[in-house]
Design brief:
It is built from 14 helices and 10 strands. It is α/β, with parallel strands linked by helices and 345 residues long. It has an 8-stranded parallel beta barrel, surrounded by 7 helices. Strands 1-2 form a two-stranded antiparallel sheet. The structure holds flavin mononucleotide.
Length: 345
């Protein structure tokens, strides 16, 4: 699959943009474990045009993570246009993505993100302003519609394509659903089957294993899949999905320095420690550990350890890397003991 001349290979699996999650360290890790392309968290266009340092920091890109998309959001066409130019000048992203799907009140409630699904003319005006202003491919990410009464995606996809969007990611929920219920991929398939649509269609929402990804490629014909929450504490999901789709084993020997076999529990522990180390290197010990907590809380590695709760709480309260790694080692020992006792834990 290609976005303009960026070749993402057959059946690409992408890392979704996620605020406070898809920083440069996590993106690099996911790329090294099989993600075909990665997205930055969204960056506010009005903060970029005011050159707010924290927002400019989010534009840092490493050559090793390419292809990478930087995503911006906002509701003012001029600010979005100017922010897009700033992003291209400072980060040289492979792709510039427009957020038309964020459901949270502080964004959608103010008319940006998914809020623009209630004002399609403005959404299209923003898109045209950005497409005309930058030379990199512009893509968009959105939802099925504002609510179940307004499932606009079929016509919106055509309109966005007509504005010059070069790929469209669709999260199979409405804004009203927020993150509730099961994602519905059927309308994504409908968009894909529309003979007028020639841009790549990327499916998103509740893709957490190779089987689901394969079904979306085979049955709905989507061009790529995008994985979000299932990456929390589980960046190896890209290798798992890749191995399933390709029927081979992706070589990840360069990604993690350990002798443990890829996808073994010992290897996964090494991946998680590397993730913490990357975070600590980037933000300092305290913030780096804080930043890793979401992943440590969600990781499937420690699932099934008997009486894990007190140790889990201790892991989530650890304040130094040394303390944290000792607790993670203890959890790992408990996991090994539980597996010996009951091999399918
Ligand atoms: C913590 C968090 C932050 C998110 N931030 C963004 C964002 O910055 N931009 C965006 O387009 N979507 C964002 N999303 C939505 C995801 O990209 C994705 O569309 C959604 O989680 C559904 O996919 P999933 O079921 O694979 O998680 C975020 C989701 C989560 C859980």
């Amino acid at each position: 699959m290609k976005i303009r001349n960026i070749d993402l290979g057959p059946r690409p699996v992408l890392l979704a943009p996620m605020e406070d999650v898809t920083d440069i360290g996590f993106r690099l890790l996911c790329r090294s474990l099989g993600a075909s392309m990665v997205y930055s968290e969204f960056v506010a266009s009005d903060a970029l045009v005011r050159m707010v340092g924290k927002s400019l920091d989010k534009l840092r890109v490493s050559p090793d993570e390419r292809p990478v998309a930087i995503q911006i959001y906002g509701k003012d066409p001029i600010a979005m246009r100017d922010a897009a130019q700033i992003v291209v000048e400072k980060a040289h992203p492979d792709v510039l993505d427009l957020n038309f799907g964020c459901p949270v009140k502080r964004v959608a409630g103010k008319g940006a993100g998914a809020g623009l699904l209630q004002n399609i003319p403005l959404l299209l005006d923003i898109t045209r302003h950005v497409v005309d202003a930058v030379s990199v491919p512009v893509t968009a990410k959105t939802r099925l519609g504002w609510d179940s009464e307004h499932l606009v995606i079929t016509s919106l996809a055509e309109q966005l394509q007509d504005c010059g969007i070069e790929a469209l990611t669709i999260h199979g929920r409405t804004r009203a659903q927020m993150y509730q219920g099961q994602a519905d991929h059927s309308l994504i398939g409908e968009v894909r089957r529309n003979p007028r649509i020639h841009i790549p269609i990327i499916a998103n929402g509740d893709i957490a294993d190779g089987k689901t990804a394969q079904r979306l490629f085979d049955d709905l014909g989507v061009d790529a899949v995008m994985v979000g929450r299932a990456t929390f504490g589980c960046p190896w999901i890209f290798k798992e999905i890749r191995d399933h789709l390709d029927g081979t084993s992706l070589d990840v020997s360069q990604a993690i320095s350990t002798d443990a076999a890829p996808l073994s529990d010992a290897w996964k522990l090494a991946v998680l420690k590397q993730q913490v180390n990357l975070s600590v290197e980037r933000c300092g010990e305290r913030s780096g550990i804080l930043h890793s907590r979401r992943h440590l809380a969600a990781t499937p590695l420690f699932k099934g350890i008997p009486d894990f709760r007190p140790l889990r709480i201790a892991i989530l309260r650890a304040e130094t890397t040394e303390e944290l790694f000792a607790l993670m080692d203890e959890a790992f020992q408990k996991l090994c003991a539980a597996r010996e006792h009951k091999p399918n834990v």
